[in-house]
Amino acid sequence: MTDTLEIIEHIPALRRRLDGAGPVAFVPTMGNLHDGHITLMRQARTHGRCVVASIFVNRLQFGPSEDFDRYPRTFEPDCNKLRACGIDVLFAPNESELYPAPQNYFIEPPELGNILEGAFRPGFFRGVATVVLKLFNIVQPQVAIFGRKDYQQLQVIRNMVSQLALPINIVSGETARADDGLALSSRNGYLSATERAEAPRLYRVLRELSSAIQAGATDISGLEQAATEKLLNNQWKVDYVAVRKQADLQFPTASESELVILAAAWQGKTRLIDNIEVSAG
Amino acid sequence: MTDTLEIIEHIPALRRRLDGAGPVAFVPTMGNLHDGHITLMRQARTHGRCVVASIFVNRLQFGPSEDFDRYPRTFEPDCNKLRACGIDVLFAPNESELYPAPQNYFIEPPELGNILEGAFRPGFFRGVATVVLKLFNIVQPQVAIFGRKDYQQLQVIRNMVSQLALPINIVSGETARADDGLALSSRNGYLSATERAEAPRLYRVLRELSSAIQAGATDISGLEQAATEKLLNNQWKVDYVAVRKQADLQFPTASESELVILAAAWQGKTRLIDNIEVSAG
Asked: Which residue in B69, B75, B212, B233 is a FRET match for A111, CA 20 to 30 A apart?
């Protein structure tokens, strides 16, 4: 454990710093770090001699009507948190470092990138895959850690790494939650007090759906519909509640046992996502 | 110089062999090696302690009506040529090694990939960019060599490397030619004797166009048209003759001095391409 966080803004300096420093474990973030991120950082420490975090709010993955401009930027407190948990290097490029010219080469994910989150956020996974590949090419880690809260993102990255033959081990990290169950997220900061009090219902509904499946319920679309209605009845706007196969997020066959329940729903102007893995019968 | 070519078919074995062997200079090919390739190999030797060639006929970059099946495969003679010029490692994966699952993550090049060759071969540069990125991720070279005969491909790869922040230096190699000027190409083997005798006209026409520009001619589209007619009058089918800016292959402004003339045309069932760089004024 060290408290000498090195903050590096430029690619050549980072490459020099990491030359021979490996194995490198890498945790890419958009900053505004909370305990969920810190859990990933501690996990990274067990995988690398050198732990690198990055903070970059990636314009490419935000839609034109999304919250790129108001996304919380809290650089100094973030650095203090990284220092406190012994991160070696923070890569914090500005936009012109990562996008010196307008980005016009993209990683185009397949169908998996167009369903669920991808259906509601067109271009999101293209933007995520492209920036993550660039960060991988810059940091060249042996291990990279992604939270399971962004479940579909984790699967898109896993598949990209396999499909592009990248020599990187993708490790997933558990979702950190508030005491009332709400998954930690930078976007929770947008919630009013009333919305914040209501927000834990999302995870409660997912747990109820999960319990029903474990108890043997098999009418997937009926369960999805019932869960959706519980949210609608409490002033949520619901993008989706979906029971899918863990591996590829496709509709499960009757015999499929490794499932994940994913949801995206709005409290006021704030869009929350969550998910829960469930092993059926 | 060594005559101990190591032939490696599998990715893990290649990674083990190259671990610590760098700097690595890499020449990707589709095999059927001719003097053009060998020139690139010798050039690679000046850039790397370890020189790696690859042979892989990449289905992804062939259109459904193109010559994937009949593309010449000459593995043993290729190995002998690589041995003779002292290549250290040949990576020769089969299809299931490079595409263990159907490829569904692609590098999508921008407009540059849709003009000229891209307009006549839809999906070609997507296929090239995707396989080259995979090979780069597998070989992880410091330097990679691409021939200038495939001029647009060279520019697509250069731009991809820059746009994806790959730590690879792309070096271009000169086009090797037969005594009569025909650019060496694996596809020359498809030509009948009559077609082969006519084939050098393509380069002659490009040189005449180049001379006209150097002599001060400025009516670009008139020059393109005249060159096209010279080919049409000699039983060629012409896909394009185009004078473009070297850097981005866009239409040149009047003041542009660094030009390239590119052509693609057919002798019978064989499609030939060639190009020539020219500094105007």
From this structure: B69
